[in-house]
Specification:
There is one protein chain. This protein is of the alpha+beta class. Helix content is 34%, strand content 25%. The strands form three sheets. The protein has a five-stranded antiparallel β-sheet with strand order 10-9-8-11-12. A four-stranded antiparallel β-sheet has the order 4-7-5-6, with helices on both faces. The N and C termini lie close together (9 Å).
Length: 249
């Protein structure tokens, strides 16, 4: 059985058997991850994968699972003890200004710049609702790239904003087409393989000395600077999922 909507999944939830497949983004709001566990334990296949859906919706989860491809010393902060350990690490490496990313904010709205890690600690200690979040060293000079990879389709564009360190186009940035080199393409495919992403919108940070780091990854994202339109891209994505579902039956 292949289920293609949340409504259909709810209707047939108790009937599902090992090998059955759900194609789509899982709903269930506040119990989503408990439902993921239940479906996986029962042998139900999920497309896109449960891990890709989990990473796509959480920057904190991304920084925990994909940190080897991110800026060195990118850390997931889940509580005050994590922050205290991070203070030691950052001071040991003489890291000054830092950036934090709120877990579930998009479009640059959850990105903050701080003078040092102590400023982050002082703020977070007074607000328990801050956790979890991501902290990483600030890199001042870099090229911000959005790559869209879906099967054989791949395109990329830069995002620039001379008045804001947040390069997101929704924050007032501008875009221009960009050709990924082989190292950047390999980076995209490595991260997608680790997170089991069938397709992805990947933000890459390229330093002035040519180092490539993943900033974020998502199953869906803004396309303001893309050549392809969303309808065509969604059709490509659905074709990938349908092919995967049919191959695994």
């Amino acid at each position: 059985m292949i289920i293609r909507s949340s409504r259909e999944l709810r209707e047939h939830y108790d009937e599902l058997k090992p090998g059955d497949c759900f194609i789509g983004m899982l709903g269930f709001r506040n119990i989503k991850y408990r439902v993921f566990v239940d479906l996986l334990e029962r042998g139900i296949r999920i497309l896109p994968s449960a891990i890709s859906q989990t990473l796509s919706s959480s920057k904190a989860a991304q920084s925990h699972v994909l940190r080897q491809w991110m800026i060195p010393n990118t850390l997931t902060i889940t509580g005050r003890a994590d922050l205290m350990r991070t203070i030691n690490i950052y001071n040991e490496h003489n890291i000054g200004p830092v950036v934090t990313k709120e877990d579930r904010f998009d479009c640059g709205f959850g990105i903050h710049k701080w003078d040092d890690i102590e400023a982050v600690y002082n703020h977070a200690s007074l607000n328990a609702n801050t956790y979890p979040f991501v902290v990483q060293p600030l890199i001042s000079n870099y090229t911000d790239i959005r790559a869209i990879v879906a099967g054989d389709y791949c395109e990329a564009y830069t995002r620039e904003n001379q008045y804001n360190f947040r390069m997101n186009l929704t924050a007032g940035g501008r875009s221009r087409s960009y050709k990924l080199n082989k190292d950047q393409l390999a980076l995209c495919h490595d991260v997608m393989k680790r997170g089991r992403f069938p397709y992805a919108h990947i933000d890459i940070l390229v330093t002035d000395n040519g180092l490539n780091y993943v900033s974020e990854i998502s199953l869906k994202g803004g396309m303001k600077g893309a050549i392809i339109d969303r309808k065509k891209l969604d059709a490509i994505k659905m074709g990938i999922l349908e092919k995967m579902g049919g191959q695994e039956l």
